[in-house]
Design a protein that fits this description.
This protein is α/β, with parallel strands linked by helices. The chain is 30% helix and 17% strand. It is built from seven helices and nine strands, in the order E-H-E-H-E-E-H-H-H-E-E-E-H-E-H-E. The strands form three sheets. Strands 1-2-3-8-9 form a five-stranded parallel β-sheet, with helices on one face. A two-stranded antiparallel ribbon has the order 4-7. Helix 7 links the parallel strand 8 and strand 9 (229-233). Helix 6 packs across helix 7 (205-224).
Length: 238
């Protein structure tokens, strides 16, 4: 199937179930109600997710069955230049990788995917001064308590909700593992949500790490997907 190339036309942004109940109904509405009015389509997260209306992705390997399947995405991609969201900075607390980590802890092949407070901070926890400088999205600060199968527990970096576990994207193998999961799919424009860049300009160690990640992301994506146009979206608080 030939996918439509990016063009200078209006792009509609919508959830898979905002205009109709699923991708098929979305396609029907676009065809019958707004035919010729748009050229691009930005579909907000349509992957299986445990929270935040799609922004706590459990996997990128499949479309949420409630919305449809990859054939629906491919069909839309043949009619509109397509864009979708790729949350590079976190995964769901119910993702296979995080569940494996909770089960096996240091024996998990995904142990390096997550940011452990005990390893990140000099004394295992930020000082009050450092904590005050971090841009926080939830009560209790940027962490969640990981309860391991062996009965132990520790704090893991979690900027958003307890369902969204931050990823340490600095090791190249982690960027590659996430990128490979997305490879080969039809959308030719990706919005890579690196929202934790909101923590910039705080003077804390996490700032320097996130800036380094930001500088690495685009080349990594471009090398994996040379025929695609990638967009990295970030935001810095005023």
């Amino acid at each position: 199937m030939n996918f439509k190339k990016v063009s200078n036309q209006i792009m509609l942004i919508t959830y898979a179930d905002s205009m109709g109940k699923n991708l098929k109904e979305l396609e029907e509405i676009l065809t019958t109600q707004v035919k010729g009015a748009i050229g691009g389509l930005h579909i907000l997260p349509f992957f299986p997710s445990s929270a935040d209306r799609g922004f706590a992705p459990m996997t990128y390997r499949e479309v949420d069955p409630a919305f449809g399947d990859w054939e629906d995405i491919e069909r839309l991609a043949s009619k509109y230049y397509l864009m979708y969201d790729y949350m590079i900075n976190h995964v769901s607390a119910h993702s296979p990788e995080y569940l494996d980590y909770l089960e096996k802890k240091d024996e998990s092949e995904y142990r390096d995917f997550f940011i452990r407070f005990q390893d990140f901070w000099e004394n295992g926890y930020p000082t009050q001064e450092q904590l005050e400088k971090i841009y926080k999205r939830k009560d209790g600060g940027p962490s969640v308590k990981a309860e391991f199968a062996d009965g132990s527990s520790e704090l893991i970096w979690s900027t958003f909700s307890s369902e969204q576990i931050d990823l340490d994207c600095s090791p190249p193998k982690i960027l590659w593992a996430i990128a490979v999961e997305e490879a080969g799919r039809p959308p030719n424009t990706t919005a890579a949500r690196e929202a934790t860049l909101k923590e910039m300009d705080t003077g804390t160690p996490i700032t320097r790490q996130r800036i380094k990640i930001k500088n690495k992301i685009n080349p990594a994506f471009m090398s994996c997907f040379p025929l695609s146009f990638r967009i990295l979206q970030s935001a810095v608080p005023a």
